[in-house]
């Protein structure tokens, strides 16, 4: 049984790494068993059929009256048809960053219990049905607009479930945040938006540049220069879209030493100049 990397197998652009992603999963086979490498936390809103998920030390089964919030990880799951000849669920993936942003905005800084459970069962109700219908009606080719809409819908469902389940759900959300960060990752991610060169970050990690590059690629699955540039340019785009700062006020903040190099890199990545975004 091959391992399925989810949501990667559902994303058409293999280079895309969305923070929020919705996918309609349908099947007509009687039973499908899968080994799943789930790289993002995921809502599985089951609408037709049955689902069973096996974790390291427990399992859970749900029907169409229930949905699941699943923690990222390696799981085994089985999808089964019910009385109808189709299995259908709407999958809503979200990154740890978006979850962290939500928790800092709307919840208290509480500590989850040590007995962490990799799933949360949600009882479907009319509000959730209405929410899923609204997701189905999101249909636009404007990527920026879609991203903004999905963020609104992401916050909506989490706020509703916090209202419905209270502290129990809040504790579960906090348990989804990774607790351990390696010293290497801590140094790298604390310097994402600095103007330090790669060899300087490598020095802070007590590594030679060549060792740092090998270690980085193994950890992040991407070359460090490209990874850092993408992170910095995306932050610059987010800031410029807010409309409060100009490109000349942004480039130093995200690690570029001059406006010209920043503008060239920005246009190469996004197809428009920074001034086009900020105007």
From TrEMBL:
Superkingdom in the source lineage: Bacteria
Keywords noted in UniProt: DNA-binding, Transcription, Transcription regulation
GO molecular function annotation: DNA-binding transcription factor activity; sequence-specific DNA binding
Pfam families in the record: ExsA_N, HTH_18
Domain HTH araC/xylS-type residue range list: 182-279
UniProt cross-references to Gene3D superfamilies, sorted A to Z: Homeodomain-like
Name of protein: AraC-like DNA-binding protein
Organism from which the protein derives: Gillisia mitskevichiae
